[in-house]
């Protein structure tokens, strides 16, 4: 900076502006993050040690019960079901990543109208989850639904996907995969734009093609896109709520609940007045998420460190 | 969605034939603002609520009524926030145990004094539903009967009579099944409809007092023989295939077409089903109503008749106006008007009000006043504590789909009972 003058004549703010300016820019974000995310996390821990109906003041109406809520969770079968459903969501939701990659590779070509095809494939991500849920619940309807009409052509069925406790969760996950695959696809499409054509050329000269080309040349270059796809899919799987609420409302007999839905039911729904218990579920969900978030943060930090070297 | 009512709106919404000024002379000293949050969001109830607010506003020139109508389903979870911070003066809610969390937390005002002062003449018979811990916490404004609504034309076609005993009910059902139809439509996706069946089967099998003791947590779900017998009776119907298939997938509205199309012959439901059936194209010669038949001849008939209510928030600013409004709502004239065929089409809570000239309301009134000697219950999810109701109805739904799981279900309900009632 050539315009810099003698530091002695500058004010305090001028001298420290390189530190103060970023701090000022960060302040609103940090403030809101603290108020709406960090502090509530600790409040949840605190409330989870109380039996409180959420009405009136916690210090007056609440009763301190220590870890009783967590002890009860250990024996609560509905909690166990919800936890397992979360695991199913996590595992099956990841199918969106290879699915998205496949569609992206397929659409990554220059033919007439490709933009239209791309937007059609992206469409399910744009529409609201509520609409997706409704569309799929009509699709699954036991008598009028398209699915059973289709199965009927082959003499199979009818199945009541959302009414069968063993199938319902899978039915909802399938509905969730529809928009999530579109999301992963768009991530990969942008990633494919950044793939270095020279490397592909070089690989081709060396005789790589097909699967080997994909695995050894394309995919390594898509690593940033894959990372983001993992992050959004895992977080998406853990916070699944709207589809469940729309499609089955947690039923039949609670077989499609996940932790976030169960927490809502226990603490905030029509019949839910157990803030402490709901908070305990939230804490467990938070700890599960923390494993993934910790891993993501660590790997981002590692990448940045490597990049700086 | 704030709906402010000024006297200009009065002319539009006035549907009642009451002479407002007659009231006004006596009570015109009310001042300030009366804030009401109502959950009467369906078209007909909404018009009734807006009409009442407008008329009350007109009766008290110095008082402004501020009415806010919230979606009925949304209100069930919003009420706690509404009552906690900057509460309104008057809110809608439900009677019996549904009041408990708000009574326990001191969010509803104790209005025992107003009851004792004779504000609510003619409401003696419904006082019990508003009572908790020996005090009154609000006032009812409407209630409706439950019962079996059936396709009269199908019954005529098969030559069936309205059943009075469970044996007749089963014989009817068999005839209906033989004609290729289902006996009952039901949609249990949101669970409570199954609660209605349990209420009736248990009240008929073991009587009203047993049912209430169960609701209070005094009886064991696993040990009590009566409870087992109730499920046994229910199972008879389930094993016959009396209920429509896949009911766990439907809401109660989605189950209506089965009855409208003639695939099912009857629906155990509240009287609010009648307008829906009429709108769907069924004439009054096609729908009729009968009281749920007796099962155990030794017990008196108990009935479900859910009551909807008004309460004063304990943080209310304008208590005087709220008191006057409650008195206004329960007066015989207003009761006749708002529960009439142009209003809610339900039963008035005031004994001095007249009952609308409607086939179903009249039958319901006769049934509740003459043949409900066992007692009048609110409904499964209003009589049982909230958490017990939610776990219980889930179990009932499971039983209707997998009756073989009964032991497991009852064990679950029993462990919930031991924890919830302590």
From TrEMBL, chain A:
Entry's localization field: Cell membrane
Residue ranges constituting the ABC transmembrane type-1 domain according to the UniProt record: 86-296
Keyword Membrane: yes
Chain segments annotated as transmembrane: 23-47, 89-108, 120-141, 167-192, 213-237, 276-298
Highest taxon above the source species: Bacteria
Principal place of residence: membrane
Membrane topology: Multi-pass membrane protein
GO process annotations (BP): transmembrane transport
GO cellular component, one term: plasma membrane
Record keywords, A-Z: Cell membrane, Membrane, Transmembrane, Transmembrane helix, Transport
Family of this protein: Belongs to the binding-protein-dependent transport system permease family.
Listed name of the protein: Sugar ABC transporter permease
Organism taxonomic ancestry: Bacteria, Pseudomonadati, Pseudomonadota, Alphaproteobacteria, Rhodobacterales
């Amino acid at each position: 900076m050539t315009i810099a003058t003698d530091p002695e004549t500058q004010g305090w703010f001028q001298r420290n502006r390189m530190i103060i300016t970023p701090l000022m820019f960060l302040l609103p974000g940090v403030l809101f993050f603290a108020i709406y995310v960090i502090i509530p996390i600790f409040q949840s821990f605190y409330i989870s040690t109380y039996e409180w109906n959420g009405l009136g003041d916690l210090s007056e109406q609440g009763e301190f019960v220590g870890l009783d809520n967590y002890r009860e969770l250990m024996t609560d079968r509905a909690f166990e079901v919800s936890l397992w459903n979360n695991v199913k969501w996590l595992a099956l939701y990841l199918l969106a990543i290879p699915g998205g990659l496949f569609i992206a590779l397929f659409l990554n070509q220059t033919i007439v109208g490709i933009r239209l095809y791309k937007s059609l494939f992206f469409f399910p991500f744009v529409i609201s989850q509520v609409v997706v849920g409704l569309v799929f619940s009509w699709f699954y309807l036991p008598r009028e639904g398209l699915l059973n009409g289709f199965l009927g052509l082959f003499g199979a069925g009818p199945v009541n996907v959302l009414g069968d406790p063993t199938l319902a969760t899978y039915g909802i996950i399938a509905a969730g995969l529809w928009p999530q695959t579109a999301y992963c696809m768009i991530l990969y499409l942008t990633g494919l734009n950044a793939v270095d054509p020279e490397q592909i050329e070089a690989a081709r000269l060396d005789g790589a093609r097909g699967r080997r080309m994909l695995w050894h040349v394309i995919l390594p270059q898509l690593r940033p896109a894959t990372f983001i796809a993992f992050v959004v899919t895992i977080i998406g799987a853990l916070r699944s709520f709207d589809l469940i609420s729309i499609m089955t409302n947690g039923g039949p007999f609670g077989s499609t609940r996940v932790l976030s839905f169960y927490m809502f039911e226990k603490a905030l729904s029509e019949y839910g007045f157990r803030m402490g218990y709901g908070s305990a579920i939230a804490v467990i969900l938070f700890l599960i998420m923390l494993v993934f978030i910790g891993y993501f943060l660590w790997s981002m930090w590692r990448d940045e460190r490597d990049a700086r070297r | 969605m704030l709906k402010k009512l000024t006297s200009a709106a009065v002319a539009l919404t006035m549907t009642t034939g009451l002479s407002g000024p007659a009231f006004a002379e006596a009570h015109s000293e009310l001042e300030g603002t009366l804030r009401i949050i109502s959950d009467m969001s369906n078209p007909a109830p909404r018009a009734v609520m807006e009409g009442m607010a407008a008329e009350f506003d007109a009766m008290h020139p110095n008082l402004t009524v501020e009415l806010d109508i919230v979606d009925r389903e949304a209100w069930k979870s919003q009420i706690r926030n509404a009552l906690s911070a900057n509460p309104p003066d008057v809110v809608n809610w439900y009677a019996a145990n549904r009041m408990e969390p708000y009574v326990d937390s001191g969010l509803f005002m104790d209005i025992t004094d107003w009851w004792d002062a004779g504000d609510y003449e003619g409401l003696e018979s419904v006082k019990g539903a508003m009572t908790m811990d020996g005090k009154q916490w609000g006032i009812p404004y409407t209630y409706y009967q439950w019962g079996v609504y059936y396709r009269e034309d199908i019954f005529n076609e098969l030559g069936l009579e309205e059943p009075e005993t469970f044996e007749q009910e089963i014989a009817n059902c068999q005839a209906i099944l033989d004609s290729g139809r289902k006996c009952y439509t039901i949609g249990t996706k949101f669970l409570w409809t199954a609660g209605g069946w349990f209420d009736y089967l248990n009240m008929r099998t073991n009587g009203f007092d047993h049912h209430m003791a169960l609701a209070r947590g005094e009886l064991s779900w696993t040990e009590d023989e009566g409870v087992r017998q109730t499920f046994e009776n229910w199972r008879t119907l389930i094993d016959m295939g009396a209920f429509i298939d896949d009911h766990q997938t439907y809401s109660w509205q989605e189950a209506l077409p089965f009855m409208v199309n003639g695939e099912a012959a009857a629906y155990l439901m509240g009287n609010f089903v009648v307008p829906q059936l009429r709108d769907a194209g069924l004439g009054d010669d096609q729908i009729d109503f009968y009281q749920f038949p007796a099962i155990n001849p030794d017990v008196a008939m108990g009935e479900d008749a859910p009551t909807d209510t008004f309460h004063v928030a304990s943080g209310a600013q304008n208590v005087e106006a709220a008191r006057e409004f409650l008195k206004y709502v329960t007066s015989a004239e207003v009761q006749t008007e708002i529960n009439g065929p142009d209003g809610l089409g339900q039963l008035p809570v005031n004994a001095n009000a007249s009952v609308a000239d409607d086939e179903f309301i009249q039958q319901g009134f006769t049934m509740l006043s003459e043949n409900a000697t066992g007692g009048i219950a609110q409904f499964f999810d209003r009589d049982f504590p909230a958490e017990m109701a939610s776990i219980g109805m889930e179990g009932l739904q499971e039983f209707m789909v997998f009756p073989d799981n009964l032991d497991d279900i009852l064990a679950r309900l029993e462990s919930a009972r031991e924890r919830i009632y302590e």
